[in-house]
Specification:
334 residues, alpha/beta, 9 helices, 11 strands, Restriction endonuclease, four-stranded mixed sheet, five-stranded mixed β-barrel, OB fold (Dihydrolipoamide Acetyltransferase, E2P)
């Protein structure tokens, strides 16, 4: 079973305890009291308790709410971004050390994410170095203000989010949410490290989307290939993918030569809603395939949806180059 683990740099104890409720707070305090230093242990014990309840609290990913256009003031959200942290020491006062952060969320259009917090609430003496300069971090916070161009958050937690598989953790590193084509057992005969010639990349653009879909289905061993229709949530659904040592259900979204250029979020329907529809499928693995480059903003959006604490999933990206290698192995590049 995969669970979320949180390691705090910053933790607002009062706000976290409010989210946890009285019973969970008392349980966390009792566990911290058994440590040699209660005050030092409490932020970490509260963070562990918070990680357990993220799903039941309905803490969704900020990127997903922006894409779905259902973000509102007062909502508690989570987001993992590259933040620029800054301390304003000129405004320091007893018990108050103001700090600010900014980041950019790309959900089709860039949106600034900003906020301030009291650096006096850091979790440990080593945390200040983790909250200065540019650093990727996971933040849980309340939306205090928002517009089309900017979202302001009041942070409850800033730190590291990890996904731990208790069945695998003892045996080595735990795989992340992203599955790569080379992880798929049915693709084991394909050399994904081999270069794709320019002519082959151009040939990929000439292969019809339906041909690609049927080729992938044949390679996976899926006999049932649906016809395209306007209301579908995915282009192919299968329970025959083998990856990470087991059989897994997968929903696939194919984007063919009808969009023969680098894919951004705007290429995925109005407000990127094709990603949203894809993640409504009852599948463990969500796959996005394209005949060309797939931009980091799209990968980031797939990653945000996959890491949503309310329903975490795996995802896979197959760009034009990997599509070409797969089609080449089937003799379909001409």
């Amino acid at each position: 079973m995969t669970r979320i683990a949180l390691e705090p740099y910053f933790l607002h104890q009062d706000q976290v305890q409010s989210l946890l409720g009285e019973q969970r707070t008392e349980s966390a305090r009792a566990r911290a009291a058994r440590r040699s230093d209660l005050e030092a242990a409490l932020p970490y014990v509260l963070a562990a308790e918070l990680a357990e309840v993220l799903s039941s609290l309905g803490v969704g990913e900020l990127a997903r709410h922006v894409l779905e256009r259902n973000l509102r003031a007062g909502q508690v959200v989570g987001t993992e971004l590259e933040f620029a942290f800054q301390r304003d020491r000129d405004l320091d006062a007893p018990g108050f050390k103001p700090a600010s952060f900014t980041a950019v969320l790309d959900a089709g259009e860039p949106v600034r994410v900003i906020g301030t917090f009291n650096a006096a609430r850091i979790a440990s003496s080593s945390a200040p170095g983790s909250l200065t300069g540019n650093r990727r971090a996971y933040l849980i916070g309340t939306v205090t203000n928002l517009s089309a161009e900017q979202i302001e958050l009041r942070p409850v937690f800033i730190g590291i989010r990890s996904f731990v598989d208790d069945d695998l953790a003892a045996g080595g590193p735990v795989p992340g949410a992203r599955v790569y084509p080379s992880d798929i057992r049915q693709f084991s005969g394909i050399d994904f490290a081999s270069p794709l010639a320019e002519a082959e990349g151009e040939a990929v653009l000439r292969v019809p989307e339906d041909t690609v879909k049927r080729a992938f289905a044949r390679l996976i061993g899926e006999s049932y290939v649906p016809k395209d229709w306007g209301g579908e949530r995915s282009d192919l659904y299968t329970s025959r993918v083998f990856t990470r040592g087991r059989q897994m259900s997968a929903a696939w979204l194919f984007k063919g030569p009808g969009y023969p250029r680098a894919m951004d979020v705007k290429a995925l329907g109005k407000n990127g809603d094709q990603i949203d529809r894809l993640f409504t499928e009852p599948a463990e693995l969500l796959v996005l395939q394209h005949c060309h480059q797939i931009k980091p903003s799209v990968v980031g959006m797939m990653d945000a949806y996959a890491h949503d604490a309310r329903h975490p999933r795996f995802y896979m990206i197959i760009d034009g180059a990997d599509t070409g290698r797969i089609l080449r192995s089937l003799g379909l590049l001409r």
